[in-house]
Every structure is written in structure tokens, then in C-alpha cells.
Design a protein that fits this description.
Layout lengths: L1 H15 L8 E5 L2 E5 L4 E2 L3 E9 L5 E11 L2 E11 L11 E9 L5 E10 L5 E11 L3
Parallel strand pairs: 3-9, 6-8
Antiparallel strand pairs: 1-6, 2-4, 4-7, 5-6, 8-9
């Protein structure tokens, strides 16, 4: 259902930005600065995870999260739509936060890899946080 809603919103967004208006844009992943995540999870509960990052200019707008699952590992990065314009104002000093809800469905622990950009060699860098799932009392 969430994917259907996301697909509908994407189609609506792209059709509302007509090429006739001369507006063009692209999507871009932005490096994570920090996160607000619990120290532990309980099975079956839902937790908000807040991700903080800097948007370089006023032409950036949060779209959604890149979110990839692999076993107990989650890779996360904020995805922004960027309007291709020369009239953008610098916003590099403004820390932006967006939240996603995480539902705990497995035992053990979860490893979150929050993308922090690339190093000088072009290798992806991550803020890695492991969160254990504890027994419910």
C-alpha cells in the first residue's frame, strides 16, 4: 500500500512539473550528518528514527529515504528533489531532520548503515549503528 501511494505521489509530482514551464529537476542522495535512534528495540514495536543532514541550497526538498534491506542490515540515505535553477540560496548551515518509522520484526540485532558520502577514493562511507532487540519483560 505504501509503495502504491509513493508511486501515485511520484506520478502526480512529475506530471505537475510540466516541461512546458521550463522547470527541470533531479533526485540526489545527501550525506547523513547524525541520527536519533534508540539504544535498543523490543520485538513488534515501531520506532521513529530521525535522520539529520544538510541541504546545500534552497532548491533542495526532501522527497523520501533510500532504504535497502539485506537480512538484518538496513542502508539509509535521505533523497532530495533538486530544482535545476540558478536562483538558489545557500542553506549549508541549516541542519534538516526527517523521520521514518522502523518496525521491529526480527530477533537479534539490526545494523543500520547511514550513508555519509564518498571518500577521496570514491568509496561509500557510512555511520554504522547496531541496535539490539531485547526481550520484552
Amino acid at each position: 500500500m505504501k509503495r502504491l501511494i509513493a508511486l501515485f505521489l511520484t506520478i502526480a509530482l512529475f506530471t505537475s512539473c510540466s516541461v512546458d514551464e521550463g522547470t527541470s529537476y533531479h533526485s540526489e542522495l545527501l550525506p547523513v550528518e547524525s541520527v536519533n535512534i534508540p539504544d535498543e528495540f523490543e520485538m513488534g514495536k515501531t520506532y521513529p528514527i530521525e535522520v539529520f543532514y544538510y541541504q546545500p541550497t534552497s532548491c533542495y526538498s526532501f522527497y523520501n529515504f533510500y532504504y535497502k534491506k539485506h537480512n538484518n542490515e538496513r542502508t539509509v540515505a535521505p533523497s532530495n528533489l533538486v530544482i535545476d535553477s540558478n536562483n538558489c540560496e545557500s542553506t549549508e548551515d541549516i541542519l534538516v531532520g526527517n523521520t521514518f518509522n522502523f518496525v521491529v520484526t526480527g530477533n537479534g540485532s539490526y545494523v543500520f548503515k547511514f550513508w555519509q558520502g564518498k571518500d577521496d577514493d570514491g568509496e561509500d562511507q557510512y555511520l554504522v549503528i547496531e541496535v539490539p532487540v531485547v526481550e520484552t519483560p
